[in-house]
Every structure is written in C-alpha cells, then in structure tokens.
Design brief:
This protein is of the alpha/beta class. It contains twelve helices and 18 strands. A six-stranded mixed sheet has the order 3-2-1-4-6-5. InterPro entries: MoaB/Mog-like_dom_sf, MoaB/Mog_dom, PAPS_reduct_dom, Rossmann-like_a/b/a_fold.
Length: 404
Amino acid sequence: MEIDEAIRESDDRRLKTKYNNAIYVIRRALALYSVEEVALSFNGGKDSTVLLHLLRAGYFLHKREQSHSNGVLTDHEVAFPIRTIYFESPSAFPEINSFTYETATTYGLQMDIIRLDFKSGLEALLEAKPIRAIFLGVRIGDPTAVGQEQFSPSSPGWPPFMRVNPILDWSYRDVWAFLLACKIPYCSLYDQGYTSIGSVHDTVPNALLCVNNSSSSKEKFRPAYLLSDGRLERAGRAKKFSLPVCRPAYPAVSNGMISVDSNKNSTLTATVLGVGDEILFGTVEDELGPSLCRKLHSIGWSVSQTAVLRNDVDSVAEEVERWKSTNDVVFIYGGVGPLHSDVTLAGVAKAFGVRLAPDEEFEEYLRHLIGDHCTGDRNEVICSHGTTCYCYFYCIHFNARDTL
C-alpha cells in the first residue's frame, strides 16, 4: 500500500508515531464494526483528506491480516468499500466541490451526497443505512473537539452513532507532514494561502501567509504548509481578523503586591491545589505543596486554602469551578503528563468550558533545542543520562474565537 510504504520510508519519527496510533484506532474500529456499519465523513478539506488516506491504509492492512496473505495483496486488489458521506452546500467553494468529486472518482468512493443540514441529513442517512460508526477528521484544536476521545458516542439529541476520531491528537504540522510525505493531492485552495476552509462567506486567505509584492496590486500568498504557527490556522476563517490581544487578568504586580492605585496596595491571595491519588493514599509525601506555600508567603502573598484532589477530571473541574469566580489566584500542581491518569489539564479546560490544543510554536522551539533527543512519542525526551523525561506541548485556549 503506497501510504504505508511512504510512512515507513519517512525519517520523521513523530509522523510515524502519529500514523501508527491512527491506524490502530482505525483497525480497532474495523474489528468492532462491519464495513457496512461504518462510514467516512468527507468534506474535501485537509483533515478529511488525511483521514481518507489513513482509512485506505488501515483497511488495506485490515484485509491483509484477514487474508493471511503476508503482504501479497496489491492496492488494486483491495477496493475501498467504506461508505463516504459528503454534505454538499451551496456556500462551499467551487474548488472544494471539484476536489471532492475528483477524489471520489480517483479512489472509487461510494458517495452519499446530502444536501440537508448536517443533523437532518445524518438522521435520514442513519434511518436508511445500518451505520453505527462514522470516521471524522476532528483534531484536538477544533472547536467541536471539546470532550471527545478517539471513540465517543454522539451527543445527546443527535441520532445514535459512534464518533471515531483517528487524528484527534494530530496537530496542523502533523497534517501537512503526512500530506507532503505521502505526496497526496489536496484542494488547490491550500496553495493559495487558505489554511482552514469554511464557506465562501467566512473564509479568506490567511494574512500571515501574505507575500508583500510592491510590483503587483494583487495580494499573493504562500501555501498553507508554510504557516509557521499552526495555532493560527483559523486566522482566515473571518473577513476581519486581528491577532488576540493578551490582557492581564490582574493589575500589574510588583514584589508580591497588587497595585490598585498610587496610594493603596492590597495583598494577593492564592489557593493551592494538588492532584494525585498517590498523595491521598499516603504512598508519596507531598513536598511541593508546602514548598509552594512557603514561597508565596515569602513574596508577600496570602494562601487562603490548600487541597489535594483525586486524579479525576470531574474532581479537578469542580474544584477549579468553585474557585475561579473568587479573587484568589489558583495554583495547581501534579497530574500533568502523558499518562491517562494525568488529568489536571483536562480538568481545568472542562471548568472553563474550553479545549486543549497543541502549542505548536513552543513544541517546535523545544525540538529545535533538543533535536534527536525528542522521540515524537507521547512528548518523550531522552535525556543525556539515559532516562526518559517528558515535555508538555499543550495550552488551554480560553477564547476560541480569537485564538484559532
């Protein structure tokens, strides 16, 4: 299979890890559901293009394993039978429509074209077909990704089906690394500076890719894969876009004192929260909490409360929710890492009703510093003394409309 072969030949270890994880999710879904019970939601965008070709590779590997042919199957011997759903919209770019139909012809896709709104169209399709699971190109930085996992049941009020998200943990960089490494055709709009494509009414080329050319009155743009900061891929999803202005949540602080006016000072107060079952079980002594309290007091802060929470998303979210409306600054430690039991970031995001997204700019900066020591798997970094440490490349977006 040409996709699987291209990834094997790539020297991008991070891409290989992302690919293998996505293929695992796909093969798991194909083991749980029959081919007649799954479908692919395809809209012609970069993410769904990646998903289509991952599905082609995953289905090929699934069939090869079933046939016990030891790799003698060829691409032409394995037709792609997964039903493909396309929601055609009158406000879609003509280039998107053209690319979608060309792709369907090239790869022999069984297209169900729906001209209703997403929910109504989906209800009609699921009534007519035995579909139980739909592959989606949702990524963790997308507005719809809040609360989703690789396998997530549909939301209340929607027709019942399993949402399968093979590229949920992929970043903007990963998407383009895959498309370019595998030499996969994509919609021509991405070569014209579009980085995230919605409708013709709310999408323009990303201004961050504009090339200043004084000899021409027409603006020119670099291709989408040259966007250096993937967090800004949605910068072209509104006619008027300005970079977010960061305003401090509190007035300026000097030496632990908050300046209200030139004649009055008041002390900052803090709540300190630790996260860790090992602390509650008594198997580990909490040294960081007392140390943090001493440090805060030494610079003039007042600690109003400390607490240790279970490694549980809801527990963290409830406690943060309780304190976020107070004047306290909340410090949280513990439970931040690559393991499933590390839930602090997810808990804080849930408390604010926002999402986690990869901080690609910081990640690329660290990769520039540490180079080959970064394995690309679960944010692991192999240190000089031979042990494995972890770097965390996620940030919490508190204003989705401004940041993505």
